[in-house]
Amino acid sequence: MPSKIEETGRPLSEAINIATRPVHTQLNKLVIYRLPLAVPPQAQDPSNYVSGLLHLTPIYNSFEALWREVLDSPEPSWTGIVPDEHSCEVCEPSAAVHHSPHVLDAPHKPTVCSRIHSLLHHVHTPDLERTDALAADIMSLTGWSTELLEEQLNGAAESPVLAAFLQRIRQSVRARPHVLLAYAWVLYMALFSGGRFIRASLAQIEPSFWNTDCLSLNPDLPLRFFTFDSPQDGDEIKASFKERFAQSSGSLLTEGEKADVVEEAKKIFEFMIEIVGELDGVCGTGPTPAQDAKTDEAGGGIMSRVSKLLGLRTRDSVVITKERRAWAKLLDAKRKVDESDGGSGGSESEQPEPTTPTGGHAPTYGMKNQSNGEHVHFAGSTRSE
């Protein structure tokens, strides 16, 4: 039976957007309704934001590092013939790792044929990589050393859902390296749609919210993750990436490989939805916030510990009232944008930046409560096995 991509002849990017529309919309709603919990007046300090960055960093670092491993590996010969189905038909048997039993758990670098190597080399865009920007934001906010940052990131990576997601990334890329396109499309394009909305919101929050002792030494706001060092603030980088993505995926991928990329994109959204659910329990935004609040008050919760590390303080009530009103306007504007967009949920769809004076926050993520080893269990899983 022909795949949907074969039936429609859609570009890979469009196929991804259509296939992920339901889970993308679901994730957007989860994030929108949690934004007020991470910004004034609900949040007294940026500890939730720090916790979010600690969860995002391992995700970006994982697939970006694996991509570099592919490009650094020796490039095998290629005859230039592209088959109709799967990449292993043009690879040597040793390169067809996705058909080898038990290979997913083996400690090896991704092995690819010359065709896929050429594809990933052409699409790879170092200017989009976010690992260093995320680390810089965390260190700017916390004043942590490189060693302490690594320790905190390792701790975050032990949370159950995030750990499963990182394992999924490693296994999928080692078995089917071309699925790196899914991670690039979903996680980079998000920075130019909802990410722009979030950045504009964060940048306009009352400066005292960010003005910790650490930031007094570095007045720049910790928004490197959403910012690109280019004349057009990354728009020209995005345009170049999208052009090369379309060219390479259209000419170098088989229909079976395109289907792999689409399915992996769906998994990315499903995992992100589960991470939000996991962090509801960790950050006290889930169904039992009273219990989590008691834990934090006792000094054992992760939010309490991060706040102490940051040395943060209570903020002025007048500022909080001002931000409460602005945030209400911001949230209303975001909802209207989503409604006018018809819930398309396309990863690369553009959204206008807000014009409200303040408010907003990045998606609310966090990390496992390592002090008591709590794990969060879910009544229902979004991921399909």
UniProtKB/TrEMBL annotation:
Q: Which SUPFAM superfamilies match?
A: Heme oxygenase-like (SSF48613)
Which InterPro entries did the record assign? Haem_Oase, Haem_Oase-like, Haem_Oase-like_multi-hlx
Q: Which GO BP annotation is one of this protein's? A: heme oxidation
UniProt-annotated stretches for the region Disordered: 334-385
One Pfam family assigned to this protein is: Heme_oxygenase
Kindly state which keywords UniProt assigns to this record, in alphabetical order: Heme, Iron, Metal-binding
Highest taxon, organism lineage: Eukaryota
Gene Ontology MF terms: heme oxygenase (decyclizing) activity; metal ion binding
Its protein name is Heme oxygenase-like protein
